[in-house]
Amino acid sequence: MPVEILLSTLNARYMHTAFALRYLYANLGDLQTRAQLCEFPIQQRPIDIAEQLLSYKPKIIGFSVYIWNIEEITDVINLLKQVAPQIKIIVGGPEVSFAEDLPSLTKVVDYVITGPGETSFYKLCSQIIENKQPLDRIITGEPIALNSLTLPYAYYNKEDIRNRLIYVEASRGCPFKCEFCLSALDRTAKPFDLEKFLIEMDLLYQRGARNFKFIDRTFNLKVSSSVAILEFFLARMSDDLYLHFEVVPDLLPDLLKQVLAKFPQGSLQLEIGVQTFDSEIQALISRKQDNEKTRNNLRWLRENTGAHIHADLVFGLPGDSMENFAESFNQLVALEPQEIQLGILKRLRGAPINRHTQSGVMRYNPKAPYNILSTEKIDFDTMQRVNRFARFWGMIANSGRFKNTLPLLLGDNAFHQFLQLSDVLYLAAGSTWKISLKRLFELVYSISVKNQPDSEPVLLPLLLLDYQRSGLKGQPPFGQTKTSSRCGVANKRQRQHQ
């Protein structure tokens, strides 16, 4: 049977998979045999993507649109409409799900599905194929009973399982109302049937899946279900099994702690959204978080589990300032998560935080990803400094390549000292991109020694140790004239850190 329906999107990286498309495909019923999944990496040229899509000679192409791919998908759709205007283009996804705030892309396409699409997409495709003209161009997605859905996990193919992240979800929605997040629009979190879900996880595991990324907004909301899922994977633990969960930072009861502590080193990644420790900002954006419990739980996780902690902070929230953010950042650094993701606030379409746009004098980039440019308390120049800070933090701190040197670079005021380093790095390199690792080591050394000449005797052995750990070949581009005794010190420190 010819392919009449294409389900497509552009993924940010090759290792990512389009979970939403698999849900749509799984729930196409009698139309499934006429449909095909077509995913592309975002780096591929729009004209090449259009050519591949057109080679199927489809009647319908459905695109899943997100903040990170809307610009590229717009380019693809504009090409398709020029070459094959008879093809019906349907778009859905978070970036086009709010009828009061639709991007210009929606003026070009034939149909827009706002909200849940599993049922609505099937009905719309059926009408088009039967040559029945749908009444509305903008279609409100129908509410869905989760247990009525056909689950999508069978549609991860062998290549997905071998090379890509396997996205899964044990629940949908979120009961919290943090205004910067689209989940603030959810009424609550709803679980899938746990028994059916674990059967699907077992089938994936038997097919060879070992890299599971849970997209639940609040994995630890219902502790009994969280424990059951964790124990399911503990019973199947292997050296290559890796699990990613997003957890509420101030909800970590003893029962959950007990099972988390059983996982081997490096088999868990916990994404923990701290966002801010400022209680006034939390109240302003409707975020409920017990900061003391959050700090205690992060400390406990680092001391008692082998989990990799990925903690999130957001810069540019309403009421935020450089000083407020520095305080939150320093508190989080002191808790020693392996990664701190420093995010810049973005204007998500439909998110409640948009109510602060006028009162907070919040100015956003008009182009995706709609990042904040300035606020009442943060001017554009400061925002650019923190953007560069975030980029260099990823390269130096989050990469793990400067593990031994980092504490010295941060000193007793992490934000202030790293901001100084970031400023000078940018002046020296002229960019935050395309800096080779060897060049980065050289810049960190030269800037640190220039700023604090007395630090060199301590800095050099630590930097040499990190350089050796990085896998770079050849002589390091710093400390060339120093005696070999210092290399001996570095080797001694290396043995101590092993």
Question: Overview of this structure, please?
Answer:
A six-stranded parallel β-sheet has the order 2-1-3-4-5-6, with helices on both faces. Strands 7-10-11-12-13-14 form a six-stranded parallel β-sheet. The protein has three domains: 5-144, Rossmann fold, CATH 3.40.50; 156-378, Alpha-Beta Horseshoe (pyruvate-formate lyase- activating enzyme); 387-498. The relative contact order is 0.06. The chain has 17 helices and 16 strands. The N and C termini lie far apart (60 Å). The chain is α/β, with parallel strands linked by helices and 498 residues long. Helix 2 packs across helix 3, helix 12 packs across helix 14 and helix 15 (437-451) runs antiparallel to helix 16 (456-469).
Give a nutshell description of this structure.
The chain is an alpha/beta fold.
Number of domains: 3
Tell me, briefly, the overall form.
Answer: globular
Strand order of the largest sheet: 2-1-3-4-5-6
Low-confidence runs of at least 5 consecutive residues: 482-498
Our measurement of the CA-to-CA distance between the termini, rounded to an integer number of angstroms, reads 60 Å
Range of strand content: 15-25%
- Based on secondary structure, the structural category is alpha/beta
What secondary-structure arrangement, pairings included, does this model have?
Blueprint: E1 5-11, H1 19-26, E2 35-41, H2 46-54, E3 60-64, H3 70-83, E4 88-92, E5 111-114, H4 118-129, E6 138-140, H5 158-163, E7 166-168, E8 171-173, E9 189-191, H6 194-206, E10 211-214, H7 223-234, E11 242-247, H8 254-260, E12 268-275, H9 279-284, H10 291-304, E13 308-315, H11 322-334, E14 339-344, E15 363-364, E16 372-374, H12 380-398, H13 406-410, H14 414-429, H15 437-451, H16 456-469, H17 484-497
Helix pairs in contact: 2-3, 7-8, 12-14, 14-15, 15-16, 16-17
